[in-house]
Design goal:
With 107 residues, the protein is mainly alpha-helical. It contains four helices and two strands, in the order αααββα. It is elongated, with a radius of gyration of 23 Å.
Length: 107
């Protein structure tokens, strides 16, 4: 009947709205977690200028692969948030600073 089909479409609309809300909430949670991880990395480098990447990664609990992804996006993003010095090899490792700070200023 028309009543039944109206009821079903109203219920589907409500369910659809709820699903969109949950999807939006999940994305917001993921975005918040990403921003928090970025800030944690930035805070570490601010407190430890000239640190090496393995020190940064090891200092942050959780999934190291995700931390590495976020860390490298801070180094290679446009504009970069973190800058590095050094050759990236044994005896001359990359050392990280906030972008815009010279090594002497950060030391």
């Amino acid at each position: 009947s028309a009543y039944d089909s109206g009821l079903l479409s109203a219920g589907a609309g409500t369910l659809g709205t709820q699903l969109l809300y949950l999807a939006g909430t999940a994305k917001q949670v993921a975005d918040d977690a990403l921003r928090q991880l970025e800030q944690t990395i930035i805070d570490y480098v601010t407190k430890h200028p000239g640190c090496e990447d393995d020190e940064i990664i090891k200092s942050i609990p959780g999934r190291s692969n995700r931390t590495k992804e976020v860390f490298y996006s801070l180094v290679h993003g446009e504009p970069p948030i973190l800058a590095r010095t050094g050759g990236g090899k044994r005896g001359d490792p990359f050392r990280y600073f906030l972008a815009g700070l010279q090594e002497e200023e950060a030391a």
